[in-house]
Amino acid sequence: MTFLEYAPAPESTSILDLKSEYGLFINGEFVPGNGESFTTISPATEQKITTISCASEADVDTAVAAARRAYEKTWSKLSGTDRGKYLFRIARLVQERSRELAVAETLDNGKPIKESRDVDVPLVAAWFFYYAGWADKLDHAGLGPNPRSLGVAAQVIPWNFPLLMLAWKIAPALAAGNTVVLKPAETTSLTAMLFAEILQQADLPAGVVNIVTGAGATGSALVNHPDVNKVAFTGSTAVGRSIARSTAGTGKKLTLELGGKGANIVFDDAPIDQAIEGIVNGIFFNQGQVCCAGSRLLVQESVHDEVVERLKERLSTLRVGDPLDKNTDIGAINSASQLGRMRELSDIGEQEGATRWSPASNLPQQGFWFPPTIFTNVSTSHRIARDEIFGPVLSVLTFRTPTEAIAKANNTPYGLSAGIWSDKGSRVLAVADKLRAGVVWANTFNKFDPASPFGGYKESGYGREGGRHGLGAYLAPAAGPKSSVVSAIMNKTPLGGSK
Amino acid sequence: MSTARLGVPKTYKLYIGGKFVRSESGRVYEVATRKGGPMLNTVNAAKGSRKDARDAVTAARAAVSGWAGTSGYNRGQVLYRIAEVLDGRRAQFAEEIAASEGVSDTAAAAQVDEAIDLWVWYAGWADKYVQVAGNANPVSGPYFNLSTPEPTGVVAVIAPQGVGSLLGFVRAVAPVLVSGNTVVVLGNERAPLAALSLGEVLATSDVPAGVVNILSGSPAEIAPWLASHADVNALDLLGAENLDWVDLQIDAAETLKRVLPPETGPDAGAPSIDRITFFTETKTVWHTKGLL
């Protein structure tokens, strides 16, 4: 055993007590779905974990009806204080069952246990705690006195942070007084099912949260249901576009959190040790399956060679393998189709002339794996510099001046995240001002907090999740005149007959 | 014996990139005015085309960095300057409104006054809305974390089409400018004169060229090109009630534009900070704090 070899240290799965089959969670109970059930597998082993129900259009209709009933009869009549108390209960139960949730998440998603245990699940609890406290303070949310809830929220979430995205969606929706029908991603429904058990333990009134599992057709039926008032979607820009089209003219309030191609800008005066760790965290956290990943590294030319060399050294020490192993840095790719996309785009990167590098690694025979990869000699026109790869693939580009760095960083239809590495505060602030991105991390990357708004510019979507702004996505101003400035002019019959 | 002086009627042109231009299509359309008034019975206005709309977007895009880069204090002064200059030309605007809307002189004058006061109201927001819409975020960790709104970019606006051709225009355009967006506006089709003349006020109020671009003509014809234009970031359908506005919203989805739906009635486009913040993007910046 050499210096960097470790004995296996797998987290035990004995804490899990999974059912052989999970139904839909509608009106407070698990019920079988009318669609064709499907299997959820561990992406690290391709072994079956359990069977998940599929919600048909009729099931979605039942779930929306349950949410509507709960909204009219229960949830909208409850005081903000009591809504908050339910959310606090949920937060506490998440904390109590955190180990179990982390193991289930890692098993089902393939992410390293150290991430699900130390990042995902603690943030889930934090999200419920944060929004619990807002429930009886909505007058201070910035929408004026007595803001109104919207009604039934349809929420569709991705597979990269299954339980965390559920929390981002459900916590603010309930705090604001809405009821929810949520659809988890097809490949990662497991922790949503455990969360449904937590809701039962918390005695949350039936129908306030409904969870319908299934694939794209289920999600489509949900967001297009005529009786939902709010649609919140996190996922690909292509699906986001189609939702924006299909909700046009319906009056449904829409939040879209879509793709990204984040630039991580390293200036020559950057603290290199921290920058290397930040670059690695920016693109290899969660196998790079992060919408705000720092997938484009923009390095000032004078430090390019040093940064790339240091990065290669660091990547050589990353441990790829069993996600349940406590020493694993990079786990499994979530699905065969995602793996296929990473391979395809990386091959295109080579074909277009970029130089590909990965550390030597023995990837397991079973499961879906992709080694951490760096492309150098990348130009802005390359597909790997433009398309979201959504994997552990870093494209390295260079710049000479801050102006060039800003121009390159903004040269994308996306605008979700960016990073700046420099020891010069005035430069950091000036560059942050110019970046067209919803989240900018200065001398850090991929930090998340329930108090901090998250969301994109341009084709990365609209609306914010987190913080006071995230609450506003689930509220409307009080009914009545919008302004104290009353106009005598506009209150006339429309123009007509003059021509 | 005295003879009435022969008037010198104005050629009403588009306002694009700080210049008053005819439509590249060469088209004009007749705008009927009140018979017997001081203006001609029939006035022509330029009939904007797809190409004019594209030119306007190009001009608006080029003006974004300059206008968005000015301080809120500075933008507020420029917007206030619009009110000052408009106030000095109240009679002309009242005349154009009365003639083209067919309303009484009193009503027309009242509309101009309200429009002037609205510029003043929005001018005052330019250096304040950031404080109201942004905040510091108490995150768990050694970070200084701040969320601030920034202008979205180029906004296409369909101005209200009913009575209130000047006030409706100002209600639509002024809030978009407050944060530093630039605009391409489709004016009131039947009563375009006040909006086109407002271009003259903007041109002499230190509003940089390209910040406001005004098109007269048919919104039904031009709006789809703006809704689908990839260099437009947001779409305000305020006056689009009688257009196929759902189709416009669907067109806008292709580039994920932010879209405000049509409004009707006396509250349509009523003064509100929401109309300012809708056309902004919240940027959240995390700064690492050093360990002492």
Largest sheet of chain A, described in full?
7 strands, mixed
CA-CA gap between termini of chain A: 91 Å
Q: What is the straight-line distance between the termini of chain B?
A: 93 Å
- Strand arrangement across the biggest beta sheet of chain B: 9-8-7-10-11
The CATH superfamily of chain B is known as Aldehyde Dehydrogenase, Chain A, domain 1
Spatial arrangement of strands, main beta sheet of chain A: 14-15-16-13-12-17-18
What general outline of chain A do the C-alpha atoms trace? globular
The CATH level-2 architecture of chain B is identified as: 3-Layer(aba) Sandwich
How would you characterize the overall build of this protein?
The complex is a heterodimer of chains A (499) and B (292). Chain A is of the alpha/beta class. Chain A contains 15 helices and 20 strands. In chain A, the strands form five sheets. Chain A has a seven-stranded mixed β-sheet with strand order 14-15-16-13-12-17-18, with helices on both faces. In chain A, helix 3 (98-109) crosses helix 4 and helix 4 (113-134) packs parallel to helix 5. Chain B has 292 residues and is of the alpha/beta class. Chain B has a single domain (12-288), classed as 3-Layer(aba) Sandwich (Aldehyde Dehydrogenase, Chain A, domain 1), CATH 3.40.605. Chain B contains ten helices and twelve strands. In chain B, the strands form four sheets. In chain B, strands 9-8-7-10-11 form a five-stranded parallel β-sheet, sandwiched between helices. Chain B has a three-stranded antiparallel β-sheet with strand order 5-6-12. In chain B, strand 10 (234-236), helix 9 (245-253) and strand 11 form a beta-alpha-beta unit. In chain B, helix 2 (72-87) packs antiparallel against helix 4 (105-123), helix 3 runs antiparallel to helix 7 (193-203) and helix 4 (105-123) runs parallel beside helix 6 (165-178). The longest helix of chain B is centred in the N-terminal third of the chain and has 20 residues, at 50-69. At the A-B interface, helix 8, helix 14, strand 18, strand 19 and helix 15 of A face strand 3, helix 4, strand 6, helix 6 and helix 9 of B. Strand 18 (439-442) of chain A pairs parallel with strand 12 (280-288) of chain B.
